[in-house]
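If it is no trouble, might I ask you for a protein's amino acid sequence along with its backbone structure tokens?
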Amino acid sequence: MNTNSSPKKLENAIKSYDILMDTRFAMRTAFELFINRYRSDLVHNPIKITSAVIAELQSQRKKKIQKWAKRKLKQIKQYVAEKIFEVRDDQVSQNAHKISRSAIREIVSHEIFREVEMHIRTKPFIVLTFDKKLTEQLQSLVTHEIQNTKDLRIAKINSYGELQPNRTIAQHQEWRLNRSQRLPFRIVKKIVPDQGIIIPTRQVIQEGSELKTQSGQNLTLRKELGKGGEGTIYALDDSKTVCKIYLKEKLTEGRKQKIELMLTKKISDAQICYPQEAVYDSDGTFRGFIMPKAEGRELGCHLFHPGFIHGQTQWNRIHSTKLALTILKKIKFLHRMNILIGDINSKNILVEDENTVYFVDCDSYQIEGFTCPAGTAAFTAPELSDRCPDGKYESVLRTKEEELFAIAVLLFQIFIPGKHPYGHIGGESVADNIKQGHFPYQLGGRFSDRAPVGYYKYAWSHLPRNMKAAFDQCFHTTKRSNTKLVIDEEKTVFLPLYNGRLGIDEWKQLIGDYLNIFQNTKKVYTEKQILNGYDLSISPLNVRRIIKKDGSVPRPLRTDGRTDAQEDNEKWIATMIRKKQRVRAKTPKK
């Protein structure tokens, strides 16, 4: 029996399953809406009712209910004429005047139960009812009494006539619990301070130690997999999960309270290494938690690493684009749960391939009043730096708008591999450049000679203009007051901005459009020679050459066999030689 049927699956069942219905279902206000909604399916697969349903409607004595029952009788007779209903005679209607209304109702339920009991091994059923008792009896029948049954689904309707699963009381309580676990965390404005109260412990935890989970499951710690500033990660017998044990000096009441709060919600994505269960030693003392095991390499050692960029021949811009969309999808899910990552950086994301990405260090995420105590200066929004100039991130609650800055930095480093948007020639530290909002990359008619040389320059060139404009909008402090971003040449399409930055959905739209460009083979190339269009290499050696609508090309293809990088390098060397010559000429001879 499928008790967790989605509305879509119930709609599919209406098309082919045997449909049984009781009187209480027919008496619902939305009954007529239900018939009209599924009429095209019911013409080919009519609802089967017994004459006891007709008898129960006729037996109503209270004036208000009697009037409503007569209306339902009229509807059913009409549906029978239209062959939407089939009525099976069970002799009850002939003796209805001798039987009480409650007895007739029992007969209706009994007839439905008997029909399912006799035929559930050979054909599937969908039962339309609001009767909890009948629902529990049918569930017990197919769960405990009969084996090898066909599918059975039990449904009711909402006020719009749409099919909904009808659950037993126990199932409904379980559904409410699961629903509460899927609801987002609260948004709060007050910090829950960690007083630094250490939880006293007697036992030393190491490889081979026996622990218990919150649900009473026994665990044995296996091989030590790694150690950090907060705790140690151990392998478990279950190869898909690991256990994090906090160091004694980091095991505080505040951390325990935060993990307990996190465990009130379930994260279904196994690639987000979110706490699954708390673990305790034999004294019953909280020691840490179990979480999904992460695979892959740190993003900082993968796509951002120079050895990968120049040595990886398989990976191209299509992979990078899909990777960016995969990361955005996970961050959007967390934001929907009102969870802020806080310390977004390339070390907290592990990459197996462009579609498989793991988020780690999840216990540091900002949840309600529990702040994220960690941060990385290169990913910190300027306004957040102003709020915690001493780097004490645990003293502030971050905002989604501040996290959008870190997301934009991460995306920039994916498309301009490993290069920070504020890393430029002759600049100060990245943190200082962030505060000044000096974004050095050229856009449109604005020229800049401060952008990094080499493939960074050419990788920027091979981004579409709307993505360049998006990065420029996010990183130029002077544009923070903008409320929308123009993304087409006709200036008719706009994207909303949040504190001057693009949101996750807006980034997904732009990057999705970029991915669509790659589907047009006339606009992209992978050959080493220079062609018109987008170079798919993550480390291109030439600027992008695009044919205009009139057929002209602003920068024609090279015919000397060299690359733009070679020419730029020769110009740079020549410039450096001239500078040295000028310096020598000005230096007085001894």
